[in-house]
Amino acid sequence: MFKRFLITSAAAALVALPLGAMAAQPVIEVYKSASCGCCKEWVKHLEANGFSVKARDVDNPSDYREKFGIPHEFGSCHSARVNGYALEGHVPAAEIKRLLAEKPRARGLAVPAMPMGSPGMEGPRSDPYDVLLVKDGGKATVYKHYK
Predict the structure, then answer these.
(1) HEC states along 23-39?
(2) At what angle do helices 93-102 and 37-48 cross, to 10 degrees?
(3) Residues 90, 104: contact at Cβ < 8 Å?
(4) C-alpha span between 107 and 113 (Å, rounded)
């Protein structure tokens, strides 16, 4: 009887381990225009990196940037929100994961404009770009530089 208990317990632990080890990433809500192809590619990038995404086509994505407290000069083609943080533009999934792990006091992350080589903007060249940590009051610091 005890032997059967040990075998059953061990089997249950083996089944439960992968489920527990695969902690689900939070849902990212993306606000984009219906016609923007690079926004769709960024959503695919997020999903490929384990995030669940709810993409919403809206008339004016910049309305959401303003609502989330990201200054106009950090704008891009889409805005997003995850766990209370704003995401503006083609922010790499790795930096979103870092943001969620570190939980800094900030509005969120931004990749201003639409730099070639950023997630969703892959193409014939890759330009250097910065991921900015946007703080309250609109000040920003470089969170990560990509070459």
Answers:
(1) CCCCEEEEEECCCCHHH
(2) 60
(3) no
(4) 18
CB contact at 8 A, 97 and 87? no
Tokens representing residue 132 in the block = 């900015």
Q: What's the pLDDT tens digit per position in 38-62?
A: 999 999 999 999 999 999 999 999 9
In this structure, what are the phi and psi dihedrals at residue 81, rounded to the nearest 5 degrees? Answer: -145, 140
pTM for the model stands at 0.84
Tokens of 144: 């990560």
What is the Cα–Cα distance from 24 to 4, expressed in whole angstroms? 33
First and final C-alpha spacing in the chain: 62
As to burial, measured by CB atoms within 10 angstroms (0-12 exposed, 13-18 middle, 19+ buried), residue 102 is: exposed
In order of their start, the domains of the chain are 25-146 (3.40.30.10)
Question: Collapsing DSSP states into helix, strand and coil, what is residue 110?
Answer: strand
Q: Give pLDDT tens digits for 21-38.
A: 446 779 999 999 999 999
